Amino acid sequence: MSITPIILDTDPGIDDAVAIAAALFAPQLDLKLITTVAGNVSVEKTTRNALQLMHFWGKDVPVAQGAAAPLVRKLRDAAYVHGESGMEGYAFVEHQRRPLELTACEATYQRLNASAESITLVTIGPLTNIALLLTQHPACKSKIKRLVMMGGSAGRGNFTPNAEFNIAIDPEAAARVFESGLEIVMCGLDVTNQAMLSPEFLAQLPHVNQTGKMLHALFSHYRSGSMATGLRMHDLCAIAWLVKPELFKMQPCFVAVETHGEYTSGTTVVDLENRYQRPANAQVALGLDVPGFQAWVAEVLALAP
Fold first, then answer.
1. Is 27 exposed, middle or buried (0-12, 13-18, 19+ CB in 10 A)?
2. What is the DSSP string of the chain?
3. Catalytic residue among 82, 216, 221, 234
């Protein structure tokens, strides 16, 4: 079995917590670094939440705090979905863990430089940190194998009528990433809205392990669906693609990010029919094997303590 080294850029966030669990415990992945960004809640809160999760699981993956605001805009968060703390519902114990002294950008750059093999970047929040990395250290692109993101949509949005949250929060950063020449895998709302955990699955979580109990408590406060009808696991799709790419239907497309539209800012323009005659700059996920996804989630969560 080949092992994929990854750096995870995240804004925890309840569904981020599940994605972090999968990144830690999927045997196919080697999580080298967690970087945090402002998105679901402030960067101070997302950093605190990432450290709480590392302490909960007894893991020593370093955490580096990143951008506190989008490149040129004011932060608009999603506390209305994830609760004021970002991870409402579970009483994490006190600890003395602290983030690295380095910024997320510098920590990522150093980790890439120190690695003998290329590393996959996985982003499940706004793309601010990655845009800063590519701007400040453009030569590091040669050390990035690919970027796998949860973000965007080939159809409708979940933050504005057309725009998905992670892209809409910092469209300028997203545009810079899509224009970078990196190999990009985009897991957007086209698949993440299908990535449901059923009420039956959710009811069984507390009986699986301590991780299941913790996630069940968080899910009870998560507002992307409901415990009675099922919950969408948006961020988990990026990890699932890394481990089980056969679950996804992919299409190479040219993708642009709208940054100026009065009503369309943050929209990912996905050229499914190649109307612009531009070379594809992303592999876009358009379909998901839902039963296969649910089976994989059960497998990977059972590996956690």
1. exposed
2. ---EEEEEEE---HHHHHHHHHHHH-TTEEEEEEEE-SSSS-HHHHHHHHHHHHHHHT----EEE--SS-SSS-----HHHH-TTSSTT--PPP------SS-HHHHHHHHHHH-SS-EEEEE-S-SHHHHHHHHH-GGGGGGEEEEEEE---SS--SSSSS--HHHHH-HHHHHHHHTS---EEEE-HHHHTT-EEPHHHHHHGGGT-HHHHHHHHHHTT--SEETTTEEE-TTHHHHHHHH-GGGEEEEEEEEEE--S-TTTTT-EEEETT-TT-----EEEEEEE-HHHHHHHHHHHHHT--
3. 234
pTM: 0.96
Task: Tell me the pLDDT of the chain (305 aa) as tens digits.
Answer: 789 999 999 999 888 999 999 999 999 999 999 999 998 889 999 999 999 999 999 999 999 999 999 999 988 866 666 667 678 888 898 899 999 999 999 999 999 999 999 999 999 999 999 999 999 999 999 999 999 999 999 999 999 999 999 999 999 999 999 999 999 999 999 999 999 999 999 999 999 999 999 999 998 877 766 788 899 999 999 999 999 999 999 999 999 999 999 999 999 999 999 999 999 999 999 999 999 999 999 999 999 99
Say how many C-beta atoms besides its own lie within 10 A of residue 65's C-beta: 25
Q: Is 234 a catalytic residue?
A: yes
